Amino acid sequence: MDLEHRDSRVALCMLRDGRLLFALTRFMSPGSPLARLPFGPTTPEMAALMGALGCRQAVLLDGGLSGQMSLRGVTGEVLRWPGLRAVPVGLIARPR
Mapping DSSP to helix (H, G, I), strand (E, B) and coil, where does residue 9 land? Predict the structure, then answer.
């Protein structure tokens, strides 16, 4: 593991109150052509960021070209932040 490598990151964590937080880092603002480039925090910086956001436990997932996120809201709307590479797997989180 290269702790100095900068890349876009995808992480999730459990907050101290039990809620889940999903984080996707991007270099530029959404909609910018540069927003999909794999540049961002190092692994230690991402760990510090997740801690600063109030995470009790966190997991760093795949990032880089495959870092992407899609969220479905309670009314069914879908928000998407695509990556440059298709990812054939997903994670679904539902409240108990």
Answer: coil
